[in-house]
Amino acid sequence: MSSVRLHGRSHTRSVLSHFAGSFLPAVHAPVRSRESYRCAHKKSTWQVHAVEQGQAGDVAESATSSSSPARGKPGSIYTQPELYKAAFSYRDISSEVSFLKEVYSRHTEGSELTSVLELGCGPGEHVTGLARAGVPRAVGLDKCPEMLAFARDLASGKAGGAAAGKKAKQAVGFGASSQQKPAPEPQQDQSGLPVPEFVAGDMTNFEIKGAPFDMVMCLLGTFSHMLDNSAAAACLRCAVRHLRPGGLLLLELGHPGDLFDGTYIIGDGGKEVWEVPQGKNKKIFVEWGAEFDNFDPVTQIIDRTVSISVLKGEEVEQSIEEVVPYRQYTVQELDLLATMTGLRIQQLYGEMNLEVDLSHEEAYRLIAVLRKL
């Protein structure tokens, strides 16, 4: 499934030349033009406006026809994981999986990746991709039972939809029981291909059987939902406990230049619009950001407006709208958090590409590689 970006705004931003910090001279960047950040962040507190709450194999078939979306009960995008996955399917998972293996090898003196844990894994596409690429032990952690059930079905080659919702009620360790050990899961799918384990738990307080891991990763901007320093430090401490000595922690976040170019302050944080085809005459239309989204310069938290609509022709069948709070981190803050928790920054990339650092013209996000001391 391919995604098409519409009216995506690119604009020139004046970026501080030393935002990367003196500890890593290679990533000091001059003023430059670059694409605005549109990394797909994990979501929370969604408001769902749905004509029909039922789910089906084809996401676009999960709502009945209507000239305009009807207001439904408050809900979560995680209760409709097929829609979540499809809306942000512009990512090239295969190439990103290759990057994850390559970056591990580069920063561990050529070692082969044998075990990985993904925090806030959502549909689990990256951790599943790593399992399929030959990583013997791959584990995904998330606190949403619907998303975990969908991830398990997706990894095992089964259809999602109603089965995922039903299995979600049986998810182990959701909420208060995040310390429970994962139940044994099948090691292969129906075709004999390896599948990852999926575990329910909170990113700030978890315990995974079988640690330590070679690498822990937190992708898709999920770490930005650590809205204060205590939550961020707690998450990193848990990650460090689950890493072998010399193991890597990989964080994907917004580009640090976004915080300093002034657009957040004036309420012009950059709106991105794209669509994803969904069968004959259907598509998913995504709007990431709105004019005057609130940004707090003290907490560095922006309340980003996000909407996702399922369209049949010009007719809206389903519409979701949410204001997502997430924190924009500076590199210096990451460096301090790393020092506090037994990590050291190894390298900062501007894309999932070993040749793109933060000063590169194509850098539009931050991939921070940290190593356990």
Mind explaining what this structure looks like?
By secondary structure, this protein is an alpha+beta fold. Helices cover 19% and strands 28% of the residues. Strands 1, 4, 10, 11, 12, 13 and 14 form a 7-stranded antiparallel beta sheet that branches. A 7-stranded mixed beta sheet has the order 7-6-5-8-9-16-15, with helices on both faces. Helix 2 packs across helix 3, helix 4 packs across helix 5 and helix 6 crosses helix 7. It is globular. 46% of the residues are buried. The N terminus is likely disordered.
Short précis:
By secondary structure, the protein is α+β, with helices and mostly antiparallel strands.
What count of helical segments does DSSP give?
7
Number of strands: 16
Mean pLDDT: 76
SSE string: EEEEHHEHEHHEEHEEEEEEHEE
Structural class: alpha+beta
What is the overall shape? Answer: globular
SS strand fraction: 25-35%
* Helical coverage, percent range: 10-25%
**Gyration radius, in Å:** 20 Å
Low-confidence stretches: 1-75, 160-184
N-to-C CA distance? 41 Å
How would you name the oligomeric state of the polypeptide chains in this document?
single chain
